[in-house]
Design a protein that fits this description.
Catalyzes the reversible conversion of 3-phosphohydroxypyruvate to phosphoserine and of 3-hydroxy-2-oxo-4-phosphonooxybutanoate to phosphohydroxythreonine. The protein is of the alpha/beta class. The protein is built from ten helices and 16 strands. It folds into two domains: 237 residues, 3-Layer(aba) Sandwich (Aspartate Aminotransferase, domain 2), CATH 3.40.640; 101 residues, Aspartate Aminotransferase, domain 1 (Alpha-Beta Complex), CATH 3.90.1150.10. Strands 2-12-11-10-7-3-4 form a seven-stranded mixed β-sheet. Strands 13-14-16 form a three-stranded antiparallel β-sheet, covered by helices on one side. Helix 8 runs parallel beside helix 10. The structure holds pyridoxal-5'-phosphate (PLP).
Length: 363
């Protein structure tokens, strides 16, 4: 393949950051605003970092329209850490977990160690494709503490188009891979959590949005201090040293998002990017996507080649052409294009152009 594109990173996570954000971080790296010091070595309790931390929170509040009775917490440990923290803080009698893929299953496995978990296997088949079972068929028994779901299953490429109606106000969502990519009503949720490395930035940081009454209710007696939402809330996420540099980078991304036009614009772009790629794949018998249109992810698009023996060649040639990390998750195989907020539409155009050319030379 002759053509080469500016490198585009289709990784599912850690994923690409906006170029302007990286350039700003670079320009400030050794000298933040004439201070002569790097954010890396600011004290987390100093006035400079306090300013950075507060601006990041204020910007996120603006972007998601977060009501006053919700706290924003910045935690370490990644989204998987929340698989345990959620039940430690919120599971009293019984929780419902909606399973639509691998991340949901992992959350369920962890929650089961802490109490009664009713599992809804919500991945079903429709017209020979994978779909999300309609809520009317979930068979949920009322009276649960919370309903946990995964709005976007990063590995399978399955996304809810809206929050479930059942359990609104008591929803807990692992929004790791689609936060800030569409408007949400925060009041539908008791807790929202998201690992930062998909749509926000650096790995290892987790953003939490937790309603006050959840923070006030007692956590499991055996819960370590740092795993209690109340500890994080009371200390302003600074019970111990938080991941300061990641917090700063997340703040730069929030600032960038606001300047781009906020979540509305991100939603439009996500729709445009994903529709382009799905429409292309659907027109070709050379390529296929296994998800029903009603449940297709706008963020992660898995696809297969009709002739799987060409997989390795496809990936190798894509890499050479500047299109990186298109390999599907090891449990699914095939390819996966992750199209997060930082991916320009031009990246999808490049991928499609490459796919046309690959089919022409191998089809
Ligand atoms: C990536 C991902 C995780 C895991 O995040 P870690 O920060 O690695 O723990 C959990 N849930 C979803 C939906 C993800 O996409």
């Amino acid at each position: 393949m002759k053509k080469h594109w500016p490198p585009y990173n289709f990784s599912a996570g850690p994923a690409m950051l906006p170029k302007q954000v990286m350039e700003q971080a670079q320009s400030e790296f050794t000298d933040w605003r004439g201070k002569g010091l790097s954010v890396l070595d600011f004290s987390h309790r100093g006035t400079d970092f306090t300013e950075i931390a507060e601006k990041a929170e204020a910007d996120l509040r603006q972007l998601l329209n977060i009501p006053k009775n919700y706290r924003v917490l910045f935690a370490a440990g990644g989204a998987s850490f929340q698989f345990a923290m959620v039940p430690m803080n919120c599971l009293r009698n019984r929780a419902v977990y909606v399973d639509t893929g691998i991340w949901g299953s992992k959350a369920i496995k962890e929650a089961k160690q802490f109490g009664q978990v009713d599992v809804v296997n919500a991945l079903s088949e429709r017209d020979g494709l994978q779909a999300i079972l309609p809520e009317s068929e979930w068979g949920i028994e009322q009276g649960f503490d919370y309903l946990h779901f995964t709005p976007n299953e990063t590995i399978g490429g399955v996304e809810f188009s809206d929050a479930p109606v059942v359990g609104r106000g008591q929803l807990i969502a692992d929004m790791s891979s689609n936060i800030l990519s569409r408007k949400i009503n925060v009041e539908d949720y008791a807790v929202i959590y998201a690992g930062a490395q998909k749509n926000i930035g650096p790995a290892g940081l987790t953003i939490l949005i937790v309603r006050d009454d959840i923070i006030q209710q007692p956590a499991a007696q055996s819960a370590p201090s740092l795993m209690r939402y109340s500890t994080l809330a009371e200390s302003g996420s600074m019970y111990n040293t938080p991941p300061t540099y990641s917090w700063y980078l997340a703040g730069l991304v929030f600032d960038w998002l606001i300047k781009q036009g906020g979540v509305d614009v991100m939603e439009q772009r996500a729709n445009e990017r994903s529709q382009k790629l799905y429409q292309f794949i659907d027109k070709r018998s050379f390529y296929a996507n296994p998800i029903h249109p009603s449940a297709r992810s706008r963020m992660n698009i898995p696809f297969t080649l009709a002739d799987e023996s060409l997989n390795a060649r496809f990936l190798e040639q894509a890499e050479m052409a500047g299109l990186h990390y298109l390999k599907g998750h090891r449990s699914v195989g095939g390819m996966r294009a992750s199209l997060y907020n930082a991916m320009p539409v031009a990246g999808v155009d490049a991928l499609i152009e490459f796919m046309v050319e690959f089919e022409r030379t191998h089809g």
